[in-house]
């Protein structure tokens, strides 16, 4: 019985999605222009930030490069460049300037899972959060993304995103899409 309880507490494993579809391959899905709409929720599930992100994906040999341009509802902008390198069958390692060490990632069926430590600027310092990032490809080529941000093992915030391949021109997304402020 104890083993069953421990297994139940360990959370999903990427292999659990092997038979689910449609199949998500990040090196196919994110090549070109993708747009995402997201929100950050604090530990009380209160929406604290909303944003739009434009992602331009290119291949450089066997590497996948993702250039992310974020625009937050308050007008702040942020850029991140991911470089993903294959690390085995449907496995990747990733690097970005604000990521400590290597991100580890794998996909199976319609799911993609990535773990990494992200440095987040807060006030005059940088805080490190353990990120547990899950993406699920849905019919119609949309992705639902849920990320848990943990500090000292406790969930401090979560991020929810919806991605869609975009026929529009890449570039900074319009802040008019996200101008309404979340409740205080």
TrEMBL record:
It comes from the Bacteria. This is DUF3833 domain-containing protein. It comes from Cobetia crustatorum. InterPro entries: DUF3833. Pfam families: DUF3833 (PF12915).
